[in-house]
Design brief:
Helix content: 25-40%
Structural class: alpha+beta
Order of helices and strands: HEEHHEEEEH
Strand content: 25-35%
Radius of gyration: 15 Å
Number of helices: 4
Shape: globular
Distance between the termini: 31 Å
Strand order of the largest sheet: 3-2-1-4-5-6
Mean pLDDT: 87
Low-confidence stretches: 1-11
């Protein structure tokens, strides 16, 4: 039976996204480009996996980088003209640092970013777009 049943479960969508990180130790501003799964559910999965890897908010960027091997660094988010989604993850300072995310969407062929959600805590973003136990 060599059909497509089993292998089709592992297809990824080519929804490109830019992830910008700010406020993290040693990386005041960092931009990454990912070629697939950039829609909010895919981003929520990536965020949940990074938190699973390193639950400490200040270590989030390092964990994200360690599990996203296909991420390409960018000097500016404008370098990814084909991205459909953009996420900004900020480490908010304080005695108990918090992670906050904001999301924008660009309609294919469009030039401007439309706010999609946020700013909101990363945990709330994960719960909204990836309800239940994410891992």
């Amino acid at each position: 039976m060599g059909g497509t049943g089993e292998s089709s479960r592992f297809l990824t969508l080519a929804t490109r996204a830019v992830y910008s990180f700010s406020g993290f130790p040693y990386h005041p501003l960092h931009h990454l480009y990912l070629h697939h799964d950039g829609y909010p559910t895919g981003a929520a999965w990536r965020f949940a996996a990074a938190l699973h890897e390193a639950p400490d908010a200040s270590s989030f960027l390092g964990a994200f980088l360690s599990i996203q091997h296909q991420a390409e660094p960018l000097a500016s988010p404008d370098q990814a003209a084909d991205a459909e989604y953009r996420y900004r993850v900020q480490l908010l300072p304080g005695t108990d640092p918090q992670l906050q995310v904001q999301c924008w969407r660009r309609i294919p062929g469009g030039a401007s970013w439309i706010p999609r959600c946020g700013p909101m805590p990363v945990a709330a973003f994960i719960q909204r777009f990836l309800p239940g136990d994410p891992l």
